[in-house]
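Example 4.3 (complexes with small molecules)
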Amino acid sequence: MTPINKDAVLVSRQPLGGPYVLLTLRHAEVARASRAGQFVMIKAGTSAEPPLRRPFSILTVDPAAETFRLFLKTIGAGTRALAALAPGDLAQCLGPLGKPFTAPPPGREALLVAGGYGIAPFHLFCEELLRAGGRARVFYGGRTAADLQVREPFAAMGVPLVPTTDDGSLGHHGRVTEAVEQYLDAKTGPVALYACGPDAMLHAVARLAARRSLPAQVSLDPWMGCGVGTCLGCVVWTQSAAEPRAHYRCACTEGPVFDAREVVWPGEDGAR
Amino acid sequence: MTEAIAAAPRLAVEVGGLRLKNPLIAASGTFGYGVEYAGILDLSSLGGLVSKGLYLAPRDGCATPRIVETPSGLLNAIGLQGVGVRAFVEKVLPALSAYDTAVLVNVCGDTVEEYAEVTRIVDQAEGVAGVEINISCPNVKKGGMAFGGDPRMTSEVVSAVRKATRLPVIPKLSPNVADIAVFARASEEAGADAVSCINTVLGLVVDVEARRPRLAFGTGGLSGPAIRPIAVRMAWQAARAVKIPVIGIGGIACATDALEFLIAGCRAVQIGTANFVDPGVYDRVRDGLADYLRRHGLDDINRVVGTLRYPGLPVAEELGG
Ligand SMILES: Cc1cc2nc3c(=O)[nH]c(=O)nc-3n(C[C@H](O)[C@H](O)[C@H](O)COP(=O)(O)OP(=O)(O)OC[C@H]3O[C@@H](n4cnc5c(N)ncnc54)[C@H](O)[C@@H]3O)c2cc1C
Ligand SMILES: Cc1cc2nc3c(=O)[nH]c(=O)nc-3n(C[C@H](O)[C@H](O)[C@H](O)COP(=O)(O)O)c2cc1C
Ligand code: FES
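Answer. The structure with flavin mononucleotide bound is encoded below.
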């Protein structure tokens, strides 16, 4: 559907540990039409600073209540202003934007690999997969246990979740991709990989997928100025069988979800 | 009859042969090819829109990162990534014909000949209202600002484009010059119908941890409210220097901002970076202009154009309306 630009009303705000917060906002069209992997461009109020809206994945939707939720990590001025909204406050909001994840063919287990706030799109994705009779498993990595804030919803859906932390404070001690490798080594059935998180993690998942000839979709996280394909700030260097000449594609309109094989990663042959 | 229900003030303007239903135009490079915003706002509510800069061939543009936010602004080095003029004419123009708005094409070139060739293709196409000549992009190695930084080159490009079309020809001037009046005059003498002022202001943002520029290209062009006072000053200088109309550009985000340019002498304005911040900006600015006119007992936007009371200078007496 066409994205709708309007003020969203903050319905509630739930601080989680540390820099994390859950926001519930009212925006009927986003609540009705969003698919997993899509995002909104949003800005708190109308203050001049910071100038631009920020992109955030849609965590969950409640079409009946006309609300959706965001899972935010506050890191700079834009996220701080959003995290400071009080119920009743307005946020300029455009969405839903971007291309969603594509479900795996029937019978393939979806392995969802998340780093930090990259967990956000996988809540909705699990709901979609389960509704369609599919199976999912989440690998959720962070620096420390406090970074793994969104775990219960997956338990409630009956989706297995494998936590990993760099400091060993929760789950596997090490990188999230190591936990994925361990699972794959022990497993025989067909899988498809999905990843959202820091670039280095996405690249590691892409390499892993290439090595094991697995299909993989990655949700990229470039700096976005507009969300609708006009600023050309968010572009990703890509190459595909259909278009062998490497070229830029907008992450906001042709992504943020890309087939991992089509992304030309920095440092690879042909990278710019 | 109370004032509140008096007839709506007239917002239509005429700029160098372009008839616009209101003085608000979407600026090049901040509105894609127009169609991207088709479902998000009513394109027919715009006075006009300018396409992203177009060369003969498609272009990849600069490496990333291409944009970085600055205080009240945005520094960009996109490098004129684009589909090329033929793809625009074949694929985009037909879609834009559904809307009642003036479509201008931002014409680019590495050489004078390329500017002329792109213009000839645009001239032959259906549905183009005018040509804006981009001689002011700071983010390309050839062409761009090289033409807009030398009055003789400006004159050469404008003459070549002039000969290639009967459409209104509007050079877009660079702020990265000592005296913009010189370039406005060179444009007028070379046959321009109007001038657009200004393109982005050359800037540099340094990542102090890496001790590198934040943009892959190095320097970039600054836009947004941060540049508005510079833009208003330059548009005012250009308007005083030439008889052809001036289109004001730079940091417009609300009606007051647009009025600054109009009062300083601009016949129309373009909105750039504010499109990213709020695609609903046109409705707000249009309503704000009408409110202003009502408050000042004016029935026509042309009556504010060039009414700046600048200390020591005479106020323009012949007002458009
Ligand atoms: C499609 C998409 C979905 C996203 N979903 C979520 C989400 O669900 N939850 C969430 O918390 N965040 C999400 N993000 C990231 C979020 O948009 C950024 O964290 C936010 O823009 C930072 O804004 P700020 O003003 O707080 O920080 P700034 O002051 O702008 O930036 C602080 C630091 O973060 C860097 N930075 C800024 N923007 C980004 C970015 N997009 N990616 C990586 N680094 C950045 C800056 O370079 C700077 O070093 C998403 C990004 C994209 C592109
Ligand atoms: C991301 C971006 C891309 C731009 N691309 C072009 C372009 O292709 N051609 C052009 O003439 N100007 C281009 N500009 C300049 C704008 O049209 C405008 O002159 C400038 O941004 C100042 O206006 P603003 O402050 O309202 O944005 C671009 C500006 C931005 C921010
Ligand atoms: S965010 Fe502007 S083009 Fe993608």
